[in-house]
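TA notes, week 10

Several of you asked for a full example with nothing omitted. So below is the full record: structure tokens for the whole chain, then the designed sequence directly under it. When grading your own attempts, check the secondary structure regions first.
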């Protein structure tokens, strides 16, 4: 176990934010080759590592969502959890990579698929085309111990743009800010009552009848619940702090967006969060995250959202509804990085994984997750392979509160070892 944690700490010191993980890619390639494994890297920086004729392929992504001070990560342990000081930790999915490194240290006859840029639309998984030998693939990107995941949500990023112009404004100028909210994963945390900084800001501006918007910079990542949002506005009446909204009067007299009132109305009207529950699975069925809104100095307004659904029809319906909503406010929309749902399926492989989970934890549940796992994408490419997903307990990924339960890592690795021996 200590070796896994040490491997993980090594990973935290190598920058690997999405779109900027080349240093970690090179490190992992060298690590595998030094231990006698064959390595292939494709054009999207997916890494395929293999030895002998394995029956099992282990899969994880090696990029991370960088929040706060990341990629500068300082880890510490507290009451059985590993955390990071003022940054995301990268346990999603770095702890899985650390487990793989331990298995390579042991020289196991396995395949390893390490995918790139999962956190920004499963980009690497969409391009996987390696010649796998194994009949089974075990994804290590789940975030709850004693659970075996056999299905996941599909998703799409819906972006919108409008070119506005600037006009003269009236009244005093204010900075209106919502800062330092908890944030969280836009899929697995979307039903946990975590407030969106964008929605809190929009509600305040609408309630105060603010219609003059000079600029807005809100949200951090498409797949993170917004923790921060700041707007510069003008208003002819006094604005003051209220609840979690911080107001600061400025001496400036900026121009305002000609249709800033419509943008404020859009933010207030947008139905962020869970749209429908899946009572059978006990998770959200349909959700959308109003992730980022920015206005540039030329009056261009950009909106970014992340939509998820447990089936293709629901995702298509949500996508159509969102595009139509943006069009009502004069925006042009695009649908990007769409990926399929992984329909829950019980197989001999999922039964085996479930059995080994029970041997270690004394319990297990077959589950689906309201987030994108790469199993859905890869399963479409390799229909003869059988898939399952497990992982140690990780809380609040994609935020500066991210943490991983250390004894869960040890036990999950024991489950993994039992699966490898049985397959």
């Amino acid at each position: 176990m200590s070796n896994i944690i040490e491997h993980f700490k090594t990973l935290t010191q190598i920058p690997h934010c999405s779109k900027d993980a080349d240093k970690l890619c090179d490190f992992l390639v060298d690590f595998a080759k030094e231990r006698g494994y064959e390595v292939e890297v494709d054009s999207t920086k997916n890494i395929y590592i293999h030895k002998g004729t394995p029956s099992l392929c282990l899969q994880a992504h090696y990029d991370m969502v960088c929040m706060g001070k990341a990629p500068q990560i300082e880890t510490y342990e507290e009451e059985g959890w590993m955390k990071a000081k003022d940054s995301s930790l990268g346990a999603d999915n770095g702890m899985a990579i650390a487990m793989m490194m331990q298995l390579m240290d042991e020289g196991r006859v396995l395949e390893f698929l390490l995918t790139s840029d999962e956190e920004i639309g499963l980009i690497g998984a969409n391009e996987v085309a390696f010649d796998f030998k194994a009949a089974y693939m075990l994804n290590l990107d789940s975030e709850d111990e004693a659970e075996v995941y056999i299905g996941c949500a599909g998703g799409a990023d819906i972006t919108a743009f409008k070119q506005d112009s600037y006009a003269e404004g009236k009244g005093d100028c204010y900075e209106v800010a919502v800062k330092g909210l908890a944030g969280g994963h836009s899929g697995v945390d979307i039903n946990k009552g975590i407030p969106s900084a964008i929605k809190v800001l929009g509600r305040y501006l609408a309630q105060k009848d603010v219609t003059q918007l000079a600029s807005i910079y809100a949200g951090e990542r498409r797949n993170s619940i917004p923790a921060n949002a700041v707007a510069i506005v003008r208003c002819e009446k006094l604005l003051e702090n209220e609840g979690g909204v911080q107001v600061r009067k400025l001496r400036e007299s900026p121009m305002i967006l000609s249709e800033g009132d419509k943008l404020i109305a859009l933010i207030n009207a947008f139905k962020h969060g869970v749209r429908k529950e899946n009572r059978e699975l006990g998770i959200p069925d349909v959700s959308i995250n109003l992730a980022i809104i920015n206005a540039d100095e030329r009056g261009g307004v950009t909106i970014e959202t992340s939509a998820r659904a447990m089936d293709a029809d629901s995702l298509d319906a949500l996508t159509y509804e969102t595009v139509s909503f943006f069009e009502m406010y004069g925006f042009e929309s695009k649908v990007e990085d769409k990926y399929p749902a992984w329909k829950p399926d019980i197989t001999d492989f999922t039964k085996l994984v479930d059995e080994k989970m029970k041997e270690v934890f004394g319990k297990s549940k077959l589950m689906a997750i309201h987030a994108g796992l790469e199993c859905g994408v890869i399963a479409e490419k390799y229909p003869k392979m059988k898939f399952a997903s497990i992982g140690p307990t990780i809380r609040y990924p994609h935020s500066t509160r991210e943490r991983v339960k250390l004894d869960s890592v040890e036990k999950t690795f024991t489950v993994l070892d039992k699966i490898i021996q049985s397959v």
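The mean pLDDT is 96. Use that as a sanity check on your answer.
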